[in-house]
Amino acid sequence: VSKPYWIPVLLGLGGLALLGVAASSHVQQPTAWPRIAERPDNPSTLAKVKLGRTLFFDPVLSNDNRTSCAHCHHPDLGFSDGLPRGRGYGAEGAGASRHDGIVLPRHTTALWNVAYAPRLYVDGRAKDLEDQARFPITTDDEMKQDPQTLVAELKALDEYGPMFDRAFAGRNGSAITFENVCRALAVFERTLVSRHSRYDRFVSGDLGALTPSEKCGLALFQSERTRCSSCHVPPLFTNNEFRVTGVGDVAGLTPDPHKDTAESGRGGGPNTAYRVPTLRNVTLHPPYMHNGSIRSLSDVLNFYSHGGGRGRGLDLPHQDAAIRPFPLSAAEKDDLIAFLGSLTDTSSMPPIPRSVPSGLEVVPRLPPFSRKIR
Ligand code: HEC
Ligand code: HEC
Q1: What is the Å distance from ligand 2's center to 220 Cα?
Q2: Tens digit of pLDDT for each residue in 6-51?
Q3: Nearest to 63 by CA among 86, 85, 90
Q4: How far apart are alpha carbons 162 and 34 in whole angstroms?
Q5: Which residue in 44, 164, 252, 310 has its CB near the most CB atoms, within 10 A?
Q6: Cα dihedral 272/276/281/285 (nearest 10)
Q7: Residue 247 Cα, ligand 2 centroid: separation in angstroms?
Q8: Each residue's pLDDT tens digit, 273-297
Q9: CA distance 233 to 250
């Protein structure tokens, strides 16, 4: 495990780190970083991080041995895939070149700072990362794996026994269980922390860390005019609440599988509330929104400045009051996009393993494409 890689784990365990005083904030003052919540029975250790990382990149998790978590959540694509909607069972390839197979009803959520989300999925249907991990592995549309079969496959591979035993205090491979697969994945995902961006340097007093254009963008982001920071609250750039912005279904594609969880239920369709996503590392993973229907940050800003779903003519009694039209010049738009770029920090990026115990092919490095899309 290389050095920059375990620092976020220790920081996370260490708990609170206070932000300095922010620049002029009109809407909501930045608060302290919250503590990363862990299950009492699954505290983070380096052995679990290493095991979880290996599992994340090992296609052995899928029933046809062709898909790892990283095929959809690719590190070079902000831990998403660059596709409007995820490509599930039967698909070939990694990231944006994935093709064929089942087209999932939603966009692949980016995983940076997922450790700070109190509930998982845009509709909040999973209660924590351990709970979430079993879904992609077992659902027919994604990895279609049977937990018992997976455990047998892992037990047949020499390297996994000692790794599981070290992480979960087992003997002779006794720690290889489906529950521990999910636990190790969760602990690995909690290391994907992004909190050392140029924006963070700026708010801790390094006033030269942002360009003049980025500073204008920050002021706009926090203004009463745009109201961005009333939902995307620093330092997480989310309030982790569920709000209706009115991103509608796309004509001709499967409508959103509106799940009436307490968090998301507001009437269904475009009246559904989705979790406010973090904007950290947001420039790394277009396209955007729960269904990947908005291709660039420029188009996201058009969506907001025209008044969200209502601005597109949808009947939305539940649309949030903070989503209403506002004027935005071309130069201001550039400033806002520049500011969002200053929230980029990938210093705790895990290394992609060169090989995995199954001997199956690991996802290749991919060229980041974000800067080309405006
Ligand atoms: C076939 C593509 C695909 C694969 C493989 C896949 N995911 Fe996902 N992942 C998605 C999609 C699509 C969503 C959004 C689903 C939704 O919100 O309903 C998602 C959502 C998530 C989330 C929720 C993030 C959040 O902020 O709420 C986590 C965590 C996650 N995946 C982890 C994993 C792990 C761990 C694996 C491997 C065991 C994995 N995924 C495999 C496509 C995939
Ligand atoms: C009322 C709360 C609210 C306000 C105000 C708001 N947002 Fe959002 N934002 C959300 C929600 C909820 C989503 C997810 C919607 C979805 O997935 O359909 C979102 C999604 C986004 C995304 C896509 C992120 C991704 O990973 O897909 C970006 C970028 C974004 N908002 C930027 C902004 C900017 C810039 C402003 C100000 C102009 C703003 N938001 C104002 C709630 C809000």
Answers
A1: 15
A2: 444 444 444 333 333 334 444 444 568 999 999 999 999 999 999 9
A3: 90
A4: 34
A5: 164
A6: 0
A7: 10
A8: 999 999 999 999 999 999 999 999 9
A9: 28
